[in-house]
Design a protein that fits this description.
Elements (H helix, E strand, L loop, with lengths): L3 H13 L5 H20 L19
Length: 60
């Protein structure tokens, strides 16, 4: 899954920040990234029609 340099970096990180359960750390980190991406790309009913300061149309 990881090459030697990546494993070394992960080992250094886990040692420095005292990560005791690497599988839990990997799972949480990966799932946080996945969920964040899903939330950012999730369609919204009000996504395009929501007025903002920069999208208001002025009537002249």
């Amino acid at each position: 899954m990881f090459n030697n340099r990546e494993m070394h970096a992960l080992g250094t990180y886990c040692s420095r920040y005292r990560v005791r359960n690497r599988s839990e750390f990997f799972r949480e980190t990966i799932m946080k990234a996945i969920i964040k991406r899903f939330e950012e790309e999730h369609p919204s009913l009000w996504e395009e029609n929501e007025p903002t300061l920069f999208s208001r149309h002025s009537s002249k």
